[in-house]
């Protein structure tokens, strides 16, 4: 049997009940009718892609699928299950795939979680963000903490043994004590995975356009403290930090996201979805009418970038250094037929000297480069040194 390469699949569901005040993702409210049309177009998009490029997927086996958004749990669970069924009939699947769905409290119930579990989903990611109802309201979330509790129980009752909770820090009006208490409360639910991000004020969002309505934002010192507390509290609770913002119990790292950071090939379907396939990055159109009008009839890419060898090496470093284990010299050599030291001698040496990177050997003798704690703090600066 030939050794097939791993392939990830991302499905974008762009619908949300209401736009959150900080959100710059491709997401918006839509009627049931639009949702149904979209889901049907998504199916046509997948089938068209396989009928046109299917021969190129013969060497691949799907080992992760991720339904993200938006709020996938906002649309009918039967339509979601239908798309997963289509994927399973169009692609060869690994016998133990990770199949994730993003869910938001207020849009989850027992019936939905049961349909997901029965159709093959085995991981769910719940967007809680904060345990405080006043803060949730302030940032425009549609749900309360109680609705999160109900959704979490629904997921467990349906049999989900791999649950992520998203949590945000540096929210308007949030104190360090609020955040610490909230994080401790979240741990009590015993999720297998926690993604912890701080609020980023993105241009074009209400938080950016009307800052006066979102005061007071925590000071830089408080923001830093929340960031350090995340690491301290989660490690103490038995979570392993495997990526700058992601913590998991042993064996529960998100395989799909690790695939992004390791630059494994993935196909994205749906509005605005991105793909990386054989060193070509593609992005789908973001216009809903064009998407629905053309799905199943033509390619839907609005952007195609053929990566050069240098682009690939840069991405290998930027993305790989996000993970705590860092980047492997052996893998670099295997992928690029070049020694990492011949390409990056200066930034490696300089960052090691400044205690921002460190070099270590694993049990097999393979050498790796990873960020130090200080390097994590200023990771963007370190990564910029690897531009060629
Ligand atoms: S639920 Fe998520 S995707 Fe939807 S508006 Fe809020 S932050 Fe954006």
TrEMBL record:
<keyword id="KW-0004">4Fe-4S</keyword>
<dbReference type="InterPro" id="IPR013785">
    <property type="entry name" value="Aldolase_TIM"/>
</dbReference>
<keyword id="KW-0411">Iron-sulfur</keyword>
<dbReference type="InterPro" id="IPR006638">
    <property type="entry name" value="Elp3/MiaA/NifB-like_rSAM"/>
</dbReference>
<keyword id="KW-0949">S-adenosyl-L-methionine</keyword>
<keyword id="KW-0479">Metal-binding</keyword>
<keyword id="KW-0143">Chaperone</keyword>
<dbReference type="Pfam" id="PF04055">
    <property type="entry name" value="Radical_SAM"/>
</dbReference>
<dbReference type="InterPro" id="IPR034505">
    <property type="entry name" value="Coproporphyrinogen-III_oxidase"/>
</dbReference>
<feature type="domain" description="Radical SAM core">
    <location>
        <begin position="1"/>
        <end position="240"/>
    </location>
</feature>
<protein>
    <recommendedName>
        <fullName>Heme chaperone HemW</fullName>
    </recommendedName>
</protein>
<dbReference type="InterPro" id="IPR010723">
    <property type="entry name" value="HemN_C"/>
</dbReference>
<comment type="similarity">
    <text>Belongs to the anaerobic coproporphyrinogen-III oxidase family. HemW subfamily.</text>
</comment>
<keyword id="KW-0408">Iron</keyword>
<comment type="function">
    <text>Probably acts as a heme chaperone, transferring heme to an unknown acceptor. Binds one molecule of heme per monomer, possibly covalently. Binds 1 [4Fe-4S] cluster. The cluster is coordinated with 3 cysteines and an exchangeable S-adenosyl-L-methionine.</text>
</comment>
<keyword id="KW-0963">Cytoplasm</keyword>
<dbReference type="Pfam" id="PF06969">
    <property type="entry name" value="HemN_C"/>
</dbReference>
<dbReference type="InterPro" id="IPR007197">
    <property type="entry name" value="rSAM"/>
</dbReference>
<keyword id="KW-0349">Heme</keyword>
<dbReference type="InterPro" id="IPR004559">
    <property type="entry name" value="HemW-like"/>
</dbReference>
<dbReference type="InterPro" id="IPR058240">
    <property type="entry name" value="rSAM_sf"/>
</dbReference>
